[in-house]
Amino acid sequence: METLAAVGYSIDPQESMRIHYLRQTGYTAMPRYHSHASYEIFYVQDGGRTYFINETAVHAGKGDLVFICPTDLHRTVSTDALLCERILVNFTEEFIRQGGGLLFPLQELGRDHLYRLPPEEQTAIEQCLQELLTEMERREAGYIEYSRCLLTGLLIRLYRLRRREQGQPAAPLSTTHPMETKITEIARYINEHFDEPLTLQEISERFYISPSYLCRIFPQITGFHFREYLQTIRLRAARELLRSSTLSIALIAERTGYAHTANFSVIFKKKTGYTPSQYRIMNRQKHNIQ
């Protein structure tokens, strides 16, 4: 892997909005899934990049845009082109709201993670992103407000594009591994049935794959071992329930696939650094402050 050019800027230390340009060649892959509290826009200027988002593989080529919502589990790997020139933008909903907000929920843009932009939209969005890079680099008077306006305009363009294309069949996606479609189906099944007592053996039988082969191929494509992926999906659901509901810890454990509350609490603290009760209290305090 060789990085040919890279530059990045952030609005503030909290990175309520940041933009990063990168051009690199060779093979690269994120070793693990990750998620973050911000939205993410990934625009491919040249080459390509493969995203694995939650349970879906997405292949973005030149002129394509990928939109990631907060808490979406994702990782990226190189495509066969072994070249990627991209502009990445991360931003929080609070950053957009400070400018008056949008008339549509941002989550709606994430229902279709991949936007295959027509040529005229590619030109407009590239110009917008380049101007945003320039604003963030020069930091002249009013650059934060103008950067917010540029980003808001880009989001409105995506929303209009999505509305125009609703009801039209999605463009077919190519795959880079013969088992990618099957693993995508398995990941989707896990996302829909994580509250059940799933095992590697059961999944292998359901999808007609030997347990040993599934154990090898699953991490190659997703970046997770099977048990690690299942646990990540369960804990993500548990965090959401702790933040947004008044359900007891025992009931949350049950609804996220854990047969024993004590085991759930041990795993939760190991992965987050907090007990479920501490996590709930901490997030309520943050909400009250805001």
Automatic annotation (TrEMBL):
Q: Which SMART domains match?
A: HTH_ARAC
Q: Which Pfam families match?
A: AraC_binding, HTH_18
Keywords of the record, alphabetical order, are: DNA-binding, Transcription, Transcription regulation
Domain of life, per the record?
A: Bacteria
Q: Which InterPro entries match?
A: AraC-bd (IPR003313), Homeodomain-like_sf (IPR009057), HTH-like (IPR037923), HTH_AraC (IPR018060), RmlC-like_jellyroll (IPR014710), Tscrpt_reg_AraC-type_HTH (IPR020449)
Please list the GO terms describing molecular function.
DNA-binding transcription factor activity; sequence-specific DNA binding
Residues in HTH araC/xylS-type domain copies: 184-282
Xref: Gene3D superfamilies: Homeodomain-like, Jelly Rolls
Q: What is this protein called?
A: HTH araC/xylS-type domain-containing protein
Organism listed in the record: Paenibacillus bovis
